[in-house]
Amino acid sequence: MFYKKREKFNKLSIKIGLIFSKLPLSPNQWTLISLILAILSFYFLINQKFLIALLFFFFTATIDFIDGSVARVTKKVTNLGAYLDTTIDRIVEFLMIFGLFSISYPIFIFGSQIWLLLLLFGSMMTTYVKAAAFEKQIVKKELKGGFLERSERLILLFLIILISSYSLSYASYLIVITAILTNISALQRFLIAIKR
Questions:
Q1: CATH domain 106-196 topology
Q2: What's the rounded Cα separation, in Å, for the pair 182 and 121?
Q3: Which of 46, 126, 138 is nearest to 86 (CA)?
Q4: 110 by DSSP, 3-state: which?
Q5: What is the 3-state secondary structure (H, E, C) of 23-76?
Q6: CB 34 within 8 A of CB 25
Q7: Residue 108 per-residue DSSP state
Q8: So what's the pLDDT on residue 179?
């Protein structure tokens, strides 16, 4: 849903790009730094150091915004860079969800591993449906829409980790909600593609 407010983010993106383009790092190097920070976040998450994991996750998401901003401002936007960015985005999301598997959340209808598996499936399918629709030329432009875009999923993952540091029960409810919404989002994108 944030994609509908992209123009507001574009102004912020330009300012951030101008600031961080002064550092001697290419957009692809920024992307790789975000992966390193995600691995650190994963490490702290599986050790249930939630607030430290959250801090590294926040920096990961921030740098994910910086790499694209720097690429646009320095006019170094490339297909390879976009491919690297989207691939690492999937790895980051996987690491965060996989890290939650190590936590003993209380059972809510099913065990937490089932809900996390559904969350992972929905997250990956939301992205796959978009890529497949474009690759198979069902749509001419990048497919957008659904309850949860990547930014909303990241915010919910951020909240799951934050709430986990205070209450595993409340965090498990949010996992269930996020799992359901991600799968609905994948279905919504599939239906949008078919209608087009």
A1: Four Helix Bundle (Hemerythrin (Met), subunit A) (1.20.120)
A2: 8
A3: 126
A4: strand
A5: CCCCHHHHHHHHHHHHHHHHHHHHCCCHHHHHHHHHHHHHHHHHHHHHHHHCCC
A6: no
A7: B
A8: 92
Distance CA 114, CA 101 (A): 10
**Residue 158: its pLDDT value, please?**
92
End-to-end Cα separation, the chain, in angstroms: 19
Residue 137 DSSP label:
T
Residue-wise pLDDT for 28-67, tens only, equals: 887 888 899 999 999 999 999 999 999 999 989 888 877 7
Contact 95, 49 (CB under 8 A): no
Amino acid in position 106: P
* Residue 93 three-state SS: helix
110 forms beta bridges with 108
**Where in the chain are the domains?**
1-102, 106-196
Q: What is the CATH number of domain 1-102?
A: 1.20.120.1760
| Crossing angle of the two packed helices 27-46 and 50-73, in degrees rounded to 10 | 170
Res 178: pLDDT: 92
110: Cα separation from own chain's centroid: 25
The residues of the chain scoring below 70 in pLDDT are: 1-13, 15-22, 143, 196
Distance (Å, whole) CA 171 – CA 89: 23
